[in-house]
Amino acid sequence: MFSMSSPALSSSPPMNTSICSLKFALLNVRSLINKTFIINDFITSHRLNCILLTETWLDATGSKELTEASPPNFSFLHCYRENTRGGGVAAIFSDHLSGKNVFFGSYSTFEYISFVLRSAYPCLALTVYRPPRLRNGFIEEFAELLSNISVEYASVLISGDLNIHMDDITDHFAHQFTDMLSAFDFTQHVVGPTHSHGHTLDLVISKGLDVTLKPILDVGISDHFCIFFDMSLITKREPRVRIIKRHTFRTDTPSKFILKYSNRSQSAFTSNRDPNPPSLSLCDNLVNDFNQSVTQILDDIAPLKIKTTLGKLKAPWRNIDSVRTLKRACRKSERKWRKTKLRDDYNNYREMLSIYKTEIRRSRQHYFSLIITENRNNSKFLFSTIDKLVNAPRSIPPEFYSPDKCNEFAAYFNHKVANIRNNIVALCAGAIHDYTTSQCHTAVSLSNFSPIQVHQLQKVIQQTSSATFAFNALPTKVF
Fold first, then answer.
1. Model pTM above 0.90
2. Distance from C-alpha of 78 to C-alpha of 101, rounded to nearest angstrom
3. Which residues form the domain of 162?
4. DSSP H helix total and E strand total for the chain
């Protein structure tokens, strides 16, 4: 016997948690392949926490498109149709929701992905797509899925394109589907057309959740309308702001720095010169004087600025002037279309969206091209960048953060290192005795150093990573 209770959102949430209103959107995208940057911008512009997509038309290599469609600090899950074109569902969600993929078996009449949202109580989200021709057996298979879900989860969100004419009161198939939902105590929220032909095909269904439907809008991305809705969820408190301290460097900053540093008195460095080898304390003083001088010059030519911002990252290629200009043009054409409702204005809006999408793609390519060029000698960074572009983000399961797992991890490597050391001692025991005590303790001194040329120094510097540590007195990006 199973005992289940749905947590009441009106009751006091557990410690270190809060009731958050999350912004969701459901859209039949009708091929994500050429709309990745539009979806990326759509998520950012509407400040969505999660977007649920159907008919993505992706295949096994769809991680590349979903990576392009995901803003910074977002992850994704997707399911693709094997062997045939079309179909496919995906979810792109904020990292703080931490969706964990779960599987309830395969079904022949519909495709789905399901994942558990991180909250004080388990909440299952399910995105479904049913091809319009597959009717026979759908009600039975979907009822089986709902039965499995209801046993394990008290809070469930189901959304997707079911291709059922819920607006047609004479549709017997729609009545069967509605009766099945009622039998499992689910509520269907969507009222009104979700397709350009006037039918209600895309649905938002919930159980044990507070879901508020927003206006259904034609966003010009496909022939389906976008369904916006809010959902209340008890989640862990996340820091809302972060403090950024940094210098603002301009194009003339390097020349100003060189001039001021050249004119600065070098008495602190020359007064302590001694023909004898410098002591450790003198070297420390020289380093401290250098760091202090550099810090003072930077504070003079590029004062330290403190900025408080939301803890969300933005795609840097969206800040290019050309992208911003086209974004404003898109918004202007969209406002005009929604005001006039004319077909010509709608076509103009779709055309502006296409131009904007092309410019974002070009801007992103240019951004990563510069990164690759600047780090051409840093193979580790290049491989990491390419991995982020073509592969899905990897996350560590929450259970691995426990103290027991950390101790187990440390014990494993301690044991491994001890075994390697013992094996080395056993293998080299005979060889060690061949060395005399005097040979083992022979002192090696370095007395002669060959000066290097300027071009050799430049080559060494150019081959090093451009990364800067937070406590470096002189950041690499100054030059």
1. no
2. 9
3. 17-236
4. 14, 14
